Amino acid sequence: MKSKQILGIVFTLVGAIGLAVGVMSIFNKGLAFGQNPWGVAIIGGIFFLTGMGLMRTVSSN
């Protein structure tokens, strides 16, 4: 595996987890990781989109 592909997978997984926790905390009126849930959801979305972009640019050879 190339380092770009590994980073893409890691960013996608971290982003999906952050996005899910952030959205769940927004609707349950709680804190996400002790932080503002909107911030966690936005950062999770950024990480998720970055990871998907990295994985899309990596060739499958």
From TrEMBL:
Tell me the domain of life. Bacteria
Q: Which residues cross the membrane?
A: 7-26, 38-55
Q: Which UniProt keywords apply?
A: Membrane, Transmembrane, Transmembrane helix
This protein's name: Uncharacterized protein
The record lists the organism as Neolewinella agarilytica
